[in-house]
Amino acid sequence: MKRIILAADIGGTTCKLGCFDETLNQIAKWSIHTDTSDSTGYQLLKNIYEAFVEFIDQSQYKFSDVVGIGIGVPGPVNFETGEVNGAVNLYWTETVNVREIFQQFVDCPVYVDNDANVAALGEKHKGAGNGSDDVVAITLGTGLGGGIISNGEIVHGHNGSGAEIGHFRVDHDQRFKCNCGKSGCIETVASATGVVNLVNFYYPKLTFKSSILQLIKDNKVTAKAVFDAAKAGDQFCIFITERVANYIAYLCSIISVTSNPKYIVLGGGMSTAGLILIENIKTEYHNLTFSPAQQDTKIVQAQLGNDAGITGAAGLIYTYIIEKEGVK
């Protein structure tokens, strides 16, 4: 019987769960509701464990076949201890030791990491990172996050704040306040929220008609509407798209001279804008970046979509147990 890996990607609304073989081929995936009623995290983690038990009971596997369990959590994680220092979307207001709680239910290894880190690991192993040991994933959604894989391992830093790339200050005029409490973070100008910020900032200066003026007046502007209008030739929206692309390219340039990745993977809802955004990012990236650092580096769109989290959570077990200890 092949051994298996169990994985959980905890979100604010649903927990995506999965079962993988030892080479990270997906065997099954399903989801359960995220129970946020308990600020200690215990009930949610117990629900995940019970969902795993139900899966095992209905499958050909036993818990003795489980190499380990990987869990991705939307909050800052101390990778060494498995502690999550609060998670706003889960209403965890205090530190929750996910590993310690989960190991009350199981006797196999449990690894815990930040959800953006595990998504990056998923893209490295089974997505656009093509198995490279040096991959950076940038998630362009309501906010901007990401993960850095260097020499095959996730960059955590000394207290778990490594790769908090949404908080590079790129807007030195500090026009918009970030959720972190500071102003000028790249998240404020290059996420879906950032697109709206820029539209609202620049549209009073418009000297020509734009197709999204009515949306602006009705306070219904979205990043998708801006990118769609840019594709249709709207000059104002093309300008906004180029501004956003330039900020992201600057971030990619900094990353390239820091960790020199083989792949920079763009994911999240905004990445589906397609060529109008990604080609602008590539052009400005090549203009900005130190030539040796950009040589053979590819900026690509993420491939795994919503499966990146569970794949990467399973990837924690693959990377830190199977690859390191030769469990086969």
Automatic annotation (TrEMBL):
Against InterPro entries, the record matches this protein to: ATPase_NBD (IPR043129), ROK (IPR000600), ROK_cs (IPR049874), ROK_glcA (IPR004654)
Query: Which family is annotated?
Result: Belongs to the ROK (NagC/XylR) family.
Q: Could you confirm whether the keyword DNA repair appears in this record?
A: no
Q: What is its EC number?
A: 2.7.1.2
Which terms under GO biological process does the entry name?
A: glycolytic process
Record-given protein name: Glucokinase
Query: A Pfam family name for this chain?
Result: ROK
Q: Which GO terms describe its cellular component?
A: cytoplasm
UniProt-recorded Gene Ontology molecular function terms = ATP binding; glucokinase activity
* Segments forming a coiled coil: none
Give the keywords, sorted: ATP-binding, Kinase, Nucleotide-binding, Transferase
Q: Out of the domains of life, which is the source?
A: Bacteria
Q: What class of enzyme is it?
A: transferase
Species assigned in the record = Staphylococcus caeli
